[in-house]
Design brief:
The protein has two domains: 104 residues, Rossmann fold (3-Layer(aba) Sandwich), CATH 3.40.50; 193 residues, Hypothetical protein af1432 (Orthogonal Bundle), CATH 1.10.3210. 55% of the residues lie in helices and 7% in strands. It has a five-stranded parallel sheet, with helices on both faces. α3 links the parallel β3 and β4. α6 runs antiparallel to α7, α6 runs antiparallel to α15 and α10 runs antiparallel to α11. The longest helix is centred in the middle third of the chain and has 50 residues. The chain is elongated and about 90 Å long.
């Protein structure tokens, strides 16, 4: 088995040699006699599994080194044991307050050094293993949550007399646009997984309104708009980043840039970016898809409307980016086509 790496940081060569002699039969030992060299080892590809650190160094003291290592995410989890000739209680307290796991006083006892190093390495290994298990479990739960979210989103679309592929398509459209605008892969992926819930509240709309083939009257339209509130209630107040973004999309993707949307009539950048992105994706897909109440528009006609509505319905900064994404968008549109056979009525509003 590969020996675990111990970094000995001490400004006195005699102490370095002594600790190295004690540890080398059991561990891979690296040494540093100043802070610069210590940071060099901890910033390298192979980080030490544990650090033995003196309080008194020739450049900056051991406390400052410890503090820097603990505030740096890449090195914060490395166990640090102070080895010092200082015996004052306030120095020991300071060491622990900075995140050290132990404090050994000089002159050192070889059996004590080996026992302390071995114990803290075992604790660190257990902690790493537990963190790994937590990450795996969290990943599994998040994956299950995403599957539930996507399934609920498709369920809402099936109720709306669709194949369920609408939510797949606009999820991809939204991801393309989000990635182009933000350059943030993680955020774009989160939006991709939240988008299927955009109209989940339609589950609460009566079929006589939701499935009406003709134009909705004022009362019916008021009922239809309530799907936003229903969706927010269904998703609830959740600490999950995914569900929080889903609520954001549900609540705001029918708002318009000029403030003429619903339910709150907010406008401009007060509308979350996630909802502004989904708004374009949703309208594009709705217009270019066959529905029982209308025939599909051409891509050209749809893009002409979207460009005309730039600064009105849609964020004017997003429209040219959406247009630039069209080749990828059209490929997804073809891949996830509905293939619906339906009878149409001559009406262009629902």
């Amino acid at each position: 088995m590969t020996k675990q790496m111990i970094l000995v940081v001490d400004g006195d060569s005699r102490n370095v040699d002594l600790l190295s002699d004690i540890l080398r039969p059991y561990y891979n030992v690296k040494t540093a006699m100043n802070a610069a060299l210590a940071f060099h080892f901890t910033n390298g590809q192979y980080k030490p599994d544990l650090i033995l650190l003196d309080t008194q160094m020739p450049d900056i003291d051991g406390y400052a080194i410890c503090k820097q290592l603990k505030i740096t995410p890449e090195t914060a989890q490395i166990p640090i044991i102070f080895v010092s000739g200082v015996r004052a209680i306030e120095d020991v307290e300071k060491a622990f307050s900075l995140g050290a796991v132990d404090f050994i006083t000089k002159p050192v006892s070889p059996p004590l050094v080996l026992a302390r190093v071995s114990a803290h390495l075992k604790l660190a290994n257990q902690k790493t293993h537990l963190m790994s298990l937590v990450k795996e479990r969290t990943k599994a739960l998040e994956s299950a949550r995403m599957e539930i979210v996507q399934s609920l989103g498709r369920a809402a679309e099936f109720k709306d007399n669709e194949t369920g592929r609408h939510v797949i398509r606009i999820s991809w459209y939204s991801r393309f646009l989000a990635k182009r605008v933000t350059g943030n892969n993680a955020w774009s992926e989160l939006l991709f997984n939240a988008t299927p819930m955009h109209d989940i509240g339609k589950i609460g709309i009566p079929d006589c309104v939701l499935l009406k083939p003709g134009k909705l009257n004022a009362d019916e339209w008021a009922i239809m708009q309530k799907h936003v509130d229903y969706g927010v209630d269904i998703l609830g107040d959740n600490e999950s980043y995914l569900l929080r973004m889903a609520v954001e999309v549900v609540q705001y993707h029918h708002e318009k840039w000029d403030g003429s949307g619903y339910p709150a009539g907010i406008k401009g950048e007060n509308i979350p970016l996630s909802a502004r992105i989904v708004a374009i994706a949703d309208v594009f897909d709705a217009l270019t898809s066959d529905r029982p109440y209308k025939r599909a528009w051409s891509v050209e006609k749809t893009m002409a409307l979207i460009e005309h509505q730039s600064g009105k319905h849609f964020d004017p900064d997003l429209v040219p980016h959406f247009k630039a994404c069209l080749p990828k968008i059209l490929a997804i549109k073809e891949q996830y086509a509905d293939h619906l056979e339906t009878e149409f009525v001559d009406d262009d509003q629902h």
